[in-house]
């Protein structure tokens, strides 16, 4: 039964298809000879998939034993180049880019051709995921990714714990080193490949220098060997101060990025890593943030710090991901009206646009603060125009219920990806910026913090896997529709029963709005415990701390004044049209009112409600919706296998109860502080 969870959406459960069975392919021809390469995996996966889905066994023919001849009723899988070699001519297909593929089921042979081996594997999964949904229609199309960087980040510590991980211990590390048995890593690679993910950072951005020890470099090599067949390249997060950490490579007294010894030190370490992992993806660096060391310690700029690593990686073709999540978490002082953590990213990167090496990418969290339930798009996306950027998303539900709550996140991510920054008064969607299209950048894409663990469900809950699946699909095609993605995932994970499809679609699509309703409205952020757990309601923890996720709630007023005219000036960090929209209450959307403005609880919204009455109503509405998740799920008893039915019911029951805890904690808090009664008389003592 553990396999049910581990296979996630790759179950290849049987589907009945009288139509297809007349012309089932008889063999798989793997065109490329690379031993244990992605094309080999593609062939094995096709074999496994057709056996599961159609109860049909196929032989795989490898290049050594392949006799050019009749390919009727074969599945041909491999690279375009190898196809041309084998058949003496290039196929007539649309242009493919790296990782892209061509899938054609209309001819006598099925063609699955990739621009590279990885692309062929993606095409094979695409074909299988179509069949697994009972879709046997004929198709002929090319698919190319929106952007080259489609990575996941794990926040795994070397001791085996995971920062903000809710699915068990690390599948990579234990006791300071890499685990011996990498079976789960291989299974993870399979899942990632099936959704087009091509890179992974395996350790926490709050990084430990000891990852660079010879023993751990060897361990990273084994991890990379395990992921390689799936086309997933491994990268690591670095601690900026590693040269001073007393490793075997020589201990320095400085980590100044311009110091020649420091440069040599990192060059040597990087060369050593590439000896063991020749296709290493690159590095991820969190610097000068939340206590992490960085270049500012030596009065160097963030760009100088980033380029130290970018230059070391450059000869090897590696990419340096540099996080924009830079802020001072010690000295922020709420009594200063104009102080604002939201300003930090653009402030810290001011003057640095165009100063980053060509193989450096600034990785920007979707909002200016920190993975909240609602944030405006980070203005840094529009500020950096001569620098490659990627969007950072979070699959692990840190502030969003930690997998104890169903919250389907792609609709939230889309609010940022589809946002128009109006740079130079021109359409500038965030998704076109990070894809490199808007500002003509060579690199770009997406990274998501995922944090799977040893739990059989990977993330800790079956339903939360829709977020991982959805992330991959969106990173491949930023324009795709969250509900379509969701329904593919449901059919693959739970089968095609229309009742199952309808219920899980309905629950999932209403889950983010419900969570926003019962945890934090109108752009006030998730009113959770800000100091430690980031779980459960704790509105009183939001203010008077140096973390800067403030609400400025008092007896009469609430919200952050981020206007230029009277506040922190944050609104002015956007291009002028967007800045003007947020500067004025009348043009600020209700759902971001308290993000941008400090108002009376009695302020009227565009909807006609007052702020405080909206709080009350939304919390009741959100908790009511969460109650329906339980009843909707109960309607699926007997339609979902018992194990997943029960595990999910347990979580949804918890969520229903916890949503009421949230509702009562928040509504009572604001009732007490404002003294304003609920017009429907639900809140407070009466
Ligand atoms: O939101 C904060 C998290 C930290 C995390 C940090 C970051 C890895 O609470 O746990 O550290 O963001 O993104 O660097």
Give a verbal description of the structure.
- By secondary structure, this protein is of the alpha/beta class.
- It folds into three domains: 142 residues, Chitobiase, domain 2, CATH 3.30.379; 333 residues, Glycosidases (TIM Barrel), CATH 3.20.20.80; 119 residues, Alpha-d-glucuronidase, C-terminal Domain, CATH 3.90.1330.10.
- It contains 19 helices and 18 strands.
- The strands form four sheets. It has an eight-stranded parallel beta barrel. Strands 2-1-3-5-4-6 form a six-stranded mixed beta sheet.
- The model has no long low-confidence stretch (mean pLDDT 96).
- It binds 4-O-methyl-beta-D-glucopyranuronic acid.
- The site of 4-O-methyl-beta-D-glucopyranuronic acid has 9 residues, from loops.
Could you provide a short overview of the structure?
With 686 residues, the protein is an alpha/beta fold.
Which keywords apply here?
single chain; 686 residues; alpha/beta; Chitobiase, domain 2; TIM Barrel; Alpha-d-glucuronidase, C-terminal Domain; 8-stranded parallel beta barrel; 6-stranded mixed beta sheet; 19 helices; 35% helix; globular; binds 4-O-methyl-beta-D-glucopyranuronic acid
Topology:
Blueprint: H1 2-7, E1 27-30, H2 38-54, E2 59-61, E3 74-79, H3 80-87, E4 101-104, E5 110-114, H4 117-131, E6 140-143, E7 149-153, E8 173-174, E9 177-178, H5 183-194, E10 199-201, H6 214-227, E11 233-238, H7 260-276, E12 282-285, H8 302-313, E13 319-323, H9 344-349, E14 360-365, H10 380-383, E15 388-394, H11 410-417, H12 430-434, E16 445-449, H13 465-476, H14 482-494, H15 498-519, E17 557-558, H16 576-583, H17 593-596, E18 599-600, H18 611-634, H19 642-674
Parallel strand pairs: 1-2, 1-3, 3-5, 7-10, 7-16, 10-11, 11-12, 12-13, 13-14, 14-15, 15-16
Antiparallel strand pairs: 4-5, 4-6, 8-9, 17-18
Helix pairs in contact: 2-4, 7-8, 13-14, 14-15, 15-18, 18-19
The protein binds 4-O-methyl-beta-D-glucopyranuronic acid (GCW).
Residues 155, 163-164, 204-206, 286, 325, 370 line the site of 4-O-methyl-beta-D-glucopyranuronic acid.
